[in-house]
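Hi W., the zinc ion complex you wanted:
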Amino acid sequence: MSANDAVAGRLETISQMLDLLGEDSFRASAHARAARLIEGLSTDVSQMSRDELLAIKGIGAKMADKIIEFVNTGSIEEEQELRAKVPAGLLTMLTIPGLGPKTVRAIWTTLNITDLPALEAAIADGRLLTLPRMGEKAVEKIRQGIEFAKQGNQRLWLGRAFEVASRVVAHVRHLPGVAQVMPAGSLRRGKETVGDLDVLVAMKHGHDANAPTVMDAFRTMPGVVAVLAAGDSKSSVRMEINHDLARWGAKKKEDQEHAAETPAPAAGPSIQVDMRVLPLDCWGAALMYFTGSKEHNVRLRERALSMGLTLSEWGLFPNDDHDTPPHQRGVKPVAAATEEDVYHALGLAWIPPEAREDRGEIERSELGTVKVGSDAKARARTGGTPVPPADSGKIATTPWALIELGDIKAELHAHTTASDGSLSIVELATEAKSRGFHTIAVTDHSQSSTIANGLRPDRLRRHIDAIREAASQLKGITLLAGSEVDILADGSLDYDDDLLAELDVIVASPHAALTQDGPTATNRLLKAIEHPLVNILGHPTGRLINRRKGLEPDMAALFAAASACGVALEINAHWMRLDLRDTHVRGALDAGCLIAIDCDVHEKADYDNLAFGVMTGRRGWLTPARCVNTWAPAKLHAWLKRGRD
Ligand SMILES: [Zn+2]
Ligand SMILES: [Zn+2]
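Structure:
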């Protein structure tokens, strides 16, 4: 965790405790604001002088002193004083969706409840209902929030786990003797949440003696909060995670629809990370074994057995039914060094990790198994064209040409300071350009999203003018004027058609009424898809991973309509959303839909979430051709003109 995150975390906690104590709300919000400012700094706060801190708008003298105190001593005296007054359980209660500081304070001062078990008891026996302004609906929401937080305790968001894995890889990659470092498991498969992290290391030939040094470096690296196992070839630690929940961690007013989006450390303060050192000679087999999924690996082992082979993390061996495993008897493997070798020896094309879920990927890979130069079927598949001679037995074609990060050339869903983003129009576009994009669409929130500072029609008109003006100045990138228009509860859009027709891009998204029943949600979203000006259905279900279930519409009906209308369905790339989810992507593609992968940019760092959106697309077998963000400018811009002539 960086110094900035650490300072921000302390200030946020102080702010929460001030709120819980019912102190001056101005002081509380000043701390929360300072936390967000520090978090958003690109300079390391521990390297900044007092004057430099004071130069930041929103940081006063007292705040600067507290920051310096923390940098110098690792704690803030005021925080310790507040902690003595505020029972720790109250801070845990604040992590429950639907519970803000005012409510927790009321629960504490009125019912004398200071921890979650007591709160659950008060829900069960009806005492919570006796609080002022606490109706049955609100109590039910809190009860569900507690349930949700409990489930979420098991697994960490992909984006947060990815950060930890990246830190570990960076820490050991350049140590002497290290040949390979790779996170395996569900992280490598791009699953939306991750349980434990598995990081694999292979030493260069002749460097096995360095393995204990690598293990030692891992166990003592920054962020390790506990060592669970310490061996020369395997170690386990618990590693600190970043608790910043991006825009869902910011302080929000209570009793609003979005009150469910309060901060929560869904996996507790740390995640278990296992590191194993493996022989380089069996790297491929080990990587496959530890990447999983279990179901995929079972299918591979069955396949091996049916071919008279046996597969383990040590390699693919002839199956001689011996009691001692072949690698312990010095048997030479058929394949082991690379994943490609092992898959090919099993008669399969290499399968991308994201597709290894036993959802038909093995059958699909058989289709691609074409033995070069030796197979009549191969010539049949290439329409009789002779296959070029090559190494015998090598795979000539791959059935997996899935989308890759570098294929994305346009961002079609982004917010500026006009609504709830932190970048200006020009900053947004400049960042998009620096990432190699040819198109960026500004899509600020519409008027009903009051909590996100949505634009009333007159403001939107002026905003469109500002975007057009900026577009005329910018070179090397196309800047489009759009809107993320709320799909209201009844399916109508949040601006009238005349105004919508002035926009280049319309992302229609559900934000409120996310608990309505399935059939109502289906009709609502269908109405938006069928609107002739809508280009993209944004985060179609509105779910937040580990936080909120979102809508449960008839997805097949949505896919059919989107396919017929030429509306793209969004994979919102934020790791908290990943909505569409992987299985929906697959269904949408089968139905003939187009997909948009968008970062829903609110700040610069959100562009980095693109990787998670792409992984989710790959889990749904998405190819570049079906993703509008990969299209060349002319094709994309023509598609966006839909319904506008
Ligand atoms: Zn949205
Ligand atoms: Zn958005």
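The first strand starts at residue 156 and ends at 157.

W.
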